[in-house]
């Protein structure tokens, strides 16, 4: 397996996380995390944000087929995920340490996703460089 295929597999598998978490939030609402929340508005907002999270997963999946050509979208998605991670980090500072699941999500948002973006950039650069090389079998 080459580096491009490895990246495609990792991104395809990794996109399951935001898609599944988002779908869970859409279907079960805020009470899917902690029962007893009575605010309909809080639940509505949570389901909306969960829909956005599922959409992020879907958009990462759209990057997989031509991953070396999807740099702009990949960087945009990384920015969105990173901003969410920074908001989560601020919440950690303001309200305290959340569950291990939320800390894991923070690690994915602020470490794993940017590393995947750097990997995508590396694969894209290699693809561009390979395309720029002259064909050794061609007549000059």
TrEMBL record:
Coiled coil: none
Keywords for the protein's UniProt record, in alphabetical order: Membrane, Transmembrane, Transmembrane helix
Transmembrane domains' residue ranges: 12-33, 45-64, 76-94, 100-119
Any Pfam family matching the protein: DUF4345
Source taxon at top rank: Bacteria
InterPro entries xrefs: DUF4345
This protein's record includes keyword Transmembrane helix: yes
Protein name: DUF4345 domain-containing protein
Lineage, top ranks: Bacteria, Pseudomonadati, Pseudomonadota, Alphaproteobacteria, Hyphomicrobiales
């Amino acid at each position: 397996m080459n580096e491009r295929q490895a990246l495609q597999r990792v991104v395809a598998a990794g996109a399951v996380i935001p898609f599944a978490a988002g779908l869970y939030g859409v279907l079960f609402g805020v009470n899917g995390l902690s029962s007893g929340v009575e605010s309909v508005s809080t639940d509505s907002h949570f389901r909306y944000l969960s829909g956005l999270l599922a959409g992020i997963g879907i958009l990462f999946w759209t990057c997989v087929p031509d991953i070396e050509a999807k740099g702009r979208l990949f960087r945009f998605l990384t920015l969105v995920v990173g901003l969410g991670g920074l908001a989560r980090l601020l919440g950690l500072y303001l309200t305290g340490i959340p569950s291990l699941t939320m800390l894991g999500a923070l690690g994915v948002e602020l470490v794993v996703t940017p590393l995947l973006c750097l990997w995508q950039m590396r694969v894209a650069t290699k693809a561009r460089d390979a395309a720029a090389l002259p064909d050794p079998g061609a007549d000059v």
